[in-house]
UniProtKB/TrEMBL annotation:
InterPro entries: AB_hydrolase_fold. This is Triacylglycerol lipase. Coiled coil: none annotated. It comes from the Bacteria. It comes from Bifidobacterium aerophilum. The keyword Cell division does not apply. The chain crosses the membrane at residues 12-37, 43-68, 80-99. It holds the Pfam family Palm_thioest. The keyword Chaperone does not apply. Keywords: Membrane, Transmembrane, Transmembrane helix.
Length: 410
């Protein structure tokens, strides 16, 4: 068990102790007040003050520890705890929410630690070729600015060697593809690994398809797994670009490009990236790429055999795709809670940004739709919020993807 989880467990034990001892003390003081007051009031008052002091210490030790160490509390529950802490009854409800949330976190992380220790000797993610994680638009994915949340660490704990795309946050697909091709070439030449297994999220999947088909990356790629990639674009993006005045688009683009340049992007291009994510933009890209691994939009999960084609730049590369469904807007974090209804109106079931018909590509497509009312958003698929989602362990999801690549000799 990690130090953080041990601290979380201690903190939640202290809060549980506070909860039950406060309840028993309250009952005890009510009963003792009938027996001792008014003739023994000094003793009663002294005991009351001593108990209040002890309970005060227990509570604050517990609450400070869980606030400092818990990941799953998040900002929302922390704010609820602070706001409700001074309101009778509401503070008890908030405390129960905090205890339940942290207790579940401790149980989940402890079980995950046990699982990883039990399979550590097998190094199930130690693939023949290293893993290259390729980010989507408007983010970076370096080891410092971690786009992928807890996923890289989980892969490495299970034997994987992980690299990052480290390309610009916003650029056209062709520009990003050229940048990624050079990144792959540097990795291959520096390490002598020969090839890489690529896992690409969102626009990163389009960038990598273009890199393989048009930029010469194909000989250096063993597999390409796309995660929630809009292979056929986002219909609502086409709509927005026709409704938002050009002057507003230009102001937004200029503001973003200036900020991205200060953060390290050499040639940020907000509008080029956005246009390449529209349905019309993806249609143009697919025409240039040659949609060698196009799947029928109704393809069920499973493997579709594809005969090797000498003219196919993807020949010999394992290609697969995944997509997920967000069930309702309220379970998507900002801004997906706003975009989900728009995408649903224009494109149907979606992850908050990309619809189901746009996801399938490659030899295999898997649609993720867990039980319950929450679903899995575009951001959940990269652990952006570090949230333990009931019914979907995002870290284990990636571990199993990479473990399967290892089983296939990649």
């Amino acid at each position: 068990m990690t130090g953080r989880i041990r601290a979380c467990r201690f903190g939640v034990i202290m809060l549980k102790l506070f909860w039950w001892t406060s309840l028993l003390a309250t009952i005890g003081f009510i009963v003792s007040a009938v027996l001792w007051l008014p003739h023994d009031w000094p003793v009663w008052l002294g005991v009351l003050l001593a108990v209040i002091g002890i309970e005060f210490a227990i509570f604050w030790i517990g609450i400070v520890i869980v606030y400092l160490t818990s990941v799953q509390l998040g900002l929302k529950i922390r704010v609820i705890g602070i706001l409700c802490g001074w309101i009778p009854i509401a503070n008890l409800v908030a405390l129960r929410l905090i205890i339940r949330t942290v207790d579940n976190e401790v149980r989940f992380e402890s079980a995950k630690e046990v699982l990883n220790r039990s399979r550590a000797p097998r190094r199930i993610c130690a693939t023949r070729y290293p893993i290259l994680l390729v980010h989507g638009v408007f983010f970076r994915d370096t080891a410092v600015l971690d786009y992928w949340g807890r996923i890289p660490g989980e892969l490495q704990r299970n034997g994987a060697t992980v690299y990052y795309g480290e390309h610009q946050s916003a650029a056209s697909v062709p520009d990003a593809a050229r940048e990624l091709t050079e990144r792959i070439r540097r990795i291959v030449e520096t390490t002598g690994c020969g090839k890489v297994n690529i896992i690409a999220h969102s626009k990163g999947g389009l960038d990598m398809r273009y890199a393989i088909a048009r930029c010469g990356a194909a000989p250096m790629v063993a597999s390409l797994t796309t995660i929630n990639t809009p292979h056929r674009g986002c219909g609502f993006a086409d709509y927005l670009l026709t409704k938002i005045p050009t002057s507003v688009q230009n102001r937004v683009a200029a503001t973003y490009n200036a900020a991205a340049a200060r953060l390290g992007d050499a040639h940020p291009d907000f509008m080029a990236a956005v246009h390449d994510l529209t349905q019309s933009g993806c249609a143009r890209l697919n025409a240039r790429i040659g949609d060698w691994r196009e799947m029928d939009k109704t393809t069920a999960p499973g493997v579709t055999p594809i005969e090797p084609d000498p003219a196919d730049p993807f020949s010999g590369i394992v290609c697969q795709s995944f997509g997920s469904k967000l069930r309702r807007a309220t379970t998507g974090k900002f801004p997906l809670n706003f975009t989900y209804p728009l995408v649903k109106w224009f494109d149907g079931p979606n992850d908050g940004l990309v619809s189901r018909p746009s996801f399938p590509w490659g030899e295999r497509f898997i649609w993720l739709e867990p039980n319950g009312t929450r679903g899995i958003s575009h951001a959940d698929m990269i652990d952006l919020n570090r949230e333990n989602i009931p019914g979907f362990d995002v870290r284990e999801f990636y571990v199993q993807i990479v473990a399967e690549l290892k089983r296939r000799g990649l």
